[in-house]
Amino acid sequence: MICDIQMTQSPSLSASLGERVSITCRASTSIGYGLVWYQQKPGSSPKLLIYHAASLESGVTSRFSGSGYGADFTLTISSLKPEDVATY
Predict the structure, then answer these.
(1) Is residue 61 helix, strand or coil?
(2) CB–CB of 28/72 below 8 Å?
(3) 4-63 tens-digit pLDDT
(4) Helix (DSSP H) and strand (DSSP E) numbers for the chain
(5) Non-local CB neighbours of 14 within 8 Å, separated by 6+ positions
(6) What is the DSSP secondary structure assignment for residue 34, as one 8-state letter?
(7) Distance of alpha carbon 45 from alpha carbon 55, whole angstroms
(8) Gap between the Cα atoms of 50 and 60, Å rounded
(9) Could you tell me the CA-to-CA distances from 80 to 29, 83, 84 in Å, in that order?
(10) Hey, which residues does 8 pair with through a beta bridge?
């Protein structure tokens, strides 16, 4: 079985340090809790932040949190820090 699922993420955003930031992602069909969030900085491999849509990977700061189910998901950074500048 081949699944063709399109993922649409919110566009690039700018924010100030200390702000709460939310990044959204929408799937073209329900994927249950099957969403992972990665952080990638230039020259580095992607780092797993969140799995099963809302489970925080061990060692990742609790400033990151994930939510959602089905087709709509959100990654939230509770208080933006300089080291959070990356692609998600």
Answers:
(1) coil
(2) no
(3) 999 999 888 899 999 999 999 999 999 999 999 999 999 999 999 999 999 999 999 999
(4) 0, 7
(5) none
(6) -
(7) 20
(8) 9
(9) 31, 8, 6
(10) 26
- The rounded distance, in Å, linking the Cα atoms of 51 and 33 is 8
CA–CA distance, 35 with 43 (Å, rounded to integer): 24
∠ at Cα 23 (22, 27), nearest 5°?
135
Q: Which pTM does this prediction carry? A: 0.94
- In the structure encoding, which two tokens stand for residue 58, read together? 């061990």
Strands (E) across the chain are located at 7-9, 21-27, 37-39, 47-51, 55-56, 64-69, 72-77
